[in-house]
Structure formats: structure tokens, C-alpha cells
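User: Teach me something about this protein's shape.
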Amino acid sequence: MEVKFFDPTREYNNNKDKLDNAVSEVLKAGNFIMGNQVKEFEKSIADYTGAKYAIAVSSGSDALALATDVLEFNNNKEVITSPFTFFSSASCLYHSGAKPVFVDVDKDTFNMDMNLVEEKINKNTAGILPVHLFSQMTDMDKVNTLAGKYNLKVLEDAAEAFGMKWQGTNSDLKHSGTIGDMGIFSFFPTKTLGAYGDAGMIVTNNEELYDKAKSYRVHGATKKYHHDYIGYNARMDTIQAAILNIKLKNIDKAIEKRKIVAEWYYEQLIGIIQITLPSIKGNQLPVYYVFNIKAKKRDELQAFLKKNGIQTTIYYPRPLHLQKCFDYLGYKPGDFPVSENLCNEVLALPIYPEITENEVLYVCEKIKEFFRIQII
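Assistant: First, the predicted structure itself:
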């Protein structure tokens, strides 16, 4: 059997007529950038997440770069974030002129260990950039407590966290990205809500930040050819918005199916002592964008699964503080041991709404077979 890590053709075939019609309408109208479908999508995202404002942009990475600039993380100000995340969580800080300051992550959630953050705060600290990773959110109660105590701005990297919600003390569930000053989503094709190309979104409840972000995505213009800021070319393609409008209507069902797939994995893999299954912490609503296990002999396991037709991937093989481009920050091996250990142990298994139970059972059986062989 062959099990792909992700197969977008299944979702397309299930919704072919609606998606084809949505794209066709854009082609007929000829308004390919920032058309009416983009405005519709922004409103739908604001309604779904509970944010006051939503700004559609060209990618999740561009959303991070733009939001970082809008929040004035610049002039070598320090912003605290995780070394165990995708590259753009820190590269956005470099490009805006800020300095990434890393703290290690929690070994169970893979998110930033908020118990280590306060000791990194100093008079040059401007903000906190929590990354909501894989299936759950960073402890936003602790993030906001520190932000309030030290007057810091919060940019939520919710690129992987669409649909996730956090319930703070004595408050209702709040959608990821809406709790800090600004939040961003990625709609990269593999994401829980994925486009058929690059696309992203910024959300905020602050009108001033909203107005500035809207300007920044069109080269800093307040009206055509009148520029108050030096911004970006970060507009969303109308075709991607049209596709996402269709897919957003089915997002709750897709999230529920991801939960069911995760339960299949839990049922089959629990009790295998050589692996550790995902652990959810805090009062929150998780979304299984990725099903990441920690595994002994991870590389050998991945090779065995590949030999048996199963695609997996590694999020992430090297932490950011050990990336060559960040040598200038002065970190060294051993500075963040939890992150470094995770890079040697994590393995992402196939999970998406259209995967079948038989495919998941096959993946699990091959994992069991691998560890039986190791014992023999």
C-alpha cells in the first residue's frame, strides 16, 4: 500500500464542481488581485475567528513580515520566540531590524516554555512572538500576563493554528491569533485551511494596526500612488480567495475529521514504549494539523516506513538557533536542549481529512512491525 503524507487531489475531487466554478468566475471577471472574493474572504475570516479586522495577504510568511513591521519590532529591539519552529517565525524579525531572542520549548507540547520567558525580558525587549505549533496553542494566559506586566506587544504566529481556541481564566474560548495585538495565519496548501498556492491572513482587534497593515500590503499606499510608508507587495490573489471561500464553508467538518484520524492513531499506537504520542496541555480546543510523534531510532523508522510506501516528514530537523544564518546571534549546541532533542526524535505521520482508516491502520501496523524487529 502507498500512503501519501498529504493528497490534495482527494479534497478537490470531492468539491470539484464548486471549486471549478469559483475559479471560473474569477477568470471571467478578470480581476485577479484583491477582487471581491478577497473582501468576502476577509469578512468570513473575521466572522469565524471573532476578530474585528482581517487583512488578506499573499502568504503566511508575508503576514509575519508585515505584522512585525507594523508592530515596530525594529532598531535592534528584542523579541522573544521559539527556536523550534519554521524559519519565517524568526526571519521576519531579522528583516524588520529586530533581534530574535530564543527560549527553549516544552518537551510535551513543543511550544515555547513560558516559564523560561521572564528571565529573558530586559529594557530592550519589545515583544513576544508565541508560535502555536502542530496541534495546540502556546499558554496565552502566561503570554498576556508577561506582556501586561512589561508593556510588551504580542504577535501570535498562528500559521498552523487555524481553528484552535484558547480559554483563558474566566473567559470564553478565543480563536488563535485574536488574543495578542496581532495574529497571522498561513493558508499554504497543506494547512488545515489550505489554498491552491500561497496565501495568508493578518487579524487584529486594533483599528490603528488594521489601517496600517492594509496600507503596508500595497507598498505602504493610503491611496493609489500616494505612500505614507515603505510597505510590501503582499496582496492576495483573487483565485486563492475564491478557493478559500469554498473550503472555509467545510472547515468545521474538516477539523472534526482530523480529530477522528488522530484518535485512530492514539488507539493503535498507545502502549508502544519506543514512541511518545502528542500531549495537549492547558484549557484549549486543539486542532490536529500535524500528528507528530517522538520516536526512538527516528531516522531508521522513517526509512522503514518509506520502504513500505509510507510518506512522513520531519518538523523540524534543525532548530533555528543552530541555523548558519543565525550564527550572528551567538548561540551554540546545548543552549536549548529540549529543542535540539526534539529535532532528533520528531516524526510527522500522514493526517488530513480524506485519509482512510485502512491507510492509518497500515501506517500503525508498520510502526509496530518496525519496533518488533528492533526487539528481535
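Now, about its shape. DSSP finds twelve helices and 15 strands in the chain. The CA atoms of residues 8 and 189 lie 8 Å apart. If you'd like, I can walk through any region in more detail.
User: That's plenty for now, thanks!
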